[in-house]
Design a protein that fits this description.
Layout: E1 6-7, E2 13-14, E3 32-33, H1 53-78, H2 92-100, E4 107-109, H3 115-120, H4 125-132, E5 156-157, H5 167-180, E6 186-191, H6 198-210, E7 214-220, E8 223-224, E9 227-228, H7 229-232, E10 248-253, H8 257-274, E11 277-282, H9 301-307, H10 312-323, H11 328-350, H12 370-385
Parallel strand pairs: 3-10, 4-5, 4-6, 6-7, 7-11, 10-11
Antiparallel strand pairs: 1-2, 8-9
Helix pairs in contact: 1-2, 1-10, 1-11, 2-8, 4-11, 5-6
């Protein structure tokens, strides 16, 4: 952020730069829970979670793979091989750590920046790229925009394009589990922009009254597309919105994977007794909102630079090195392995067939309506005429 220039004696001007800070620079003052500091060293706010060496390494390896997917997906879109891209650079810790805190039997309602959720639940990498390329044989049959994924075989409900629309669905699924008396719990992750929608407030009100076993994670990445937080809400935090509905709430450092894991696991464990929790994960979208966006129009380079030292990958790597669980050679080998696996998945996915145009009319109704039948006939006649 550049302050107005002032004249020096003699007429020459000088410019003063104001240091840009982030909420994480004053996390304790703002009630943002952390396990590690900027460099990956334990800071004493939250205790280190009880994760084994292998679990910690898997967490980090998945975050690196997701970062590598984002880098490659961006170039695929810019080269015209992928229709659309929704970047997730800087946001890896929230959804990956939260997913690790929920066992496979639980259900997850995911957002569009959360490929690590699919991978942690067992989706093959080629399945993700088949979805990005819109191929016929991926679970959603090539009908959705890239990165709008899901797979009921993995207990992951596909993301909807309408922000916030799936939050009440997650709440209802958790309520159904409570009525049945089983142990199923539900996780849903959404962006801060979703809190401006009525669906968010309806779900929160229901959750406060009925106390279903659901964990809401609001991924506060600083921007609702191009709308900053202070324009979007008058609340000091997004977490405190839970107070109005009687929902347990807290803030966590969304770039600290260990802290996200710790508070999400605790919320899941408390859910049968205390009901829902609303967790505000404070993070930052380092890249574009989508491949149709230009963030230079609404934020400054200084703001982005202030968040770079809080990169979630660097912090978790710092913690692994602090514990003696990681080396430079392993880092180099990991990045190369991720790139090789991604290239292999791309090669296989691009070779898959595209869906037939007429298949877009399938699966809407049990039996095709006369209106859709007419539309399908018109489409096929038009394609055959060309």
């Amino acid at each position: 952020m550049i302050l107005a220039s002032k004249k020096k004696p003699g007429g020459r001007s000088r410019r003063r730069e104001k240091k840009v800070t982030t909420p994480l620079d004053q996390a304790k003052k703002l009630g943002i829970r952390q396990v590690v500091d900027q460099y990956g060293k334990p800071c004493g706010d939250l205790p280190e979670p009880d994760l084994s060496r292998d679990e910690l390494r898997r967490l980090y390896e998945m975050m690196v793979l997701v970062r590598a997917i984002d880098e490659r997906g961006w170039t695929l879109q810019r080269s015209g091989r992928v229709e659309f891209w929704i970047p997730h650079c800087g946001l890896e810790a929230v959804h990956i750590a939260a997913t690790m805190a929920f066992p496979f039997e639980d259900w997850i309602f995911m957002g569009y920046r959360h490929p690590g959720t699919m991978l942690l639940r067992g989706a093959p990498l080629v399945q993700l790229f088949a979805q990005y390329f819109g191929r016929r044989d991926e679970p959603l049959k090539g009908r959705r925009l890239p990165t709008l994924m899901g797979d009921k075989r993995l207990n992951i409900v596909p993301m909807t394009t309408q922000v916030a629309s799936y939050i009440p669905h997650a709440c209802g699924a958790a309520w159904a589990a409570k009525i049945r008396g089983d142990d199923t719990r539900v996780l849903t992750i959404f962006g801060d922009g979703s809190t401006s929608r009525g669906e968010f407030h309806s779900a929160m009100n229901f959750a406060g009254v009925h106390k279903p076993p659901v964990v809401f994670i609001c991924e506060n990445n600083g921007w609702a597309v191009s709308t900053p937080t202070d324009v979007q809400t008058a609340s000091v935090t997004f977490a405190e919105k839970g107070n109005a509905y009687g929902v347990r709430n807290l803030r966590v450092d969304g770039n600290d994977a260990l802290a996200v894991y710790a508070v999400t696991r605790e919320a899941r464990e408390l859910a049968p007794r205390e009901g829902a929790s609303l967790i505000e994960a404070v993070t930052y979208r380092m890249g574009f909102h989508t491949s149709s966006d230009n963030p230079d129009l609404y934020r400054t380079a200084e703001d982005v630079a202030a968040w770079e030292p809080w990169d979630p990958l660097n912090r978790l790597r710092g913690y692994l090195e602090y514990r003696g669980f990681w080396t430079d050679d392993e880092e180099t080998a990991l990045w190369q392995r991720c790139k090789d696996e991604i290239q292999a998945a791309i090669d296989e996915a691009e070779a898959m067939p595209l869906p037939d145009p007429e298949s877009m009319f399938d699966d809407t109704f049990a039996e095709l309506t006369w209106m859709l039948e007419e539309q399908r006939t018109a489409l096929m006649d038009d394609l055959e005429g060309n």
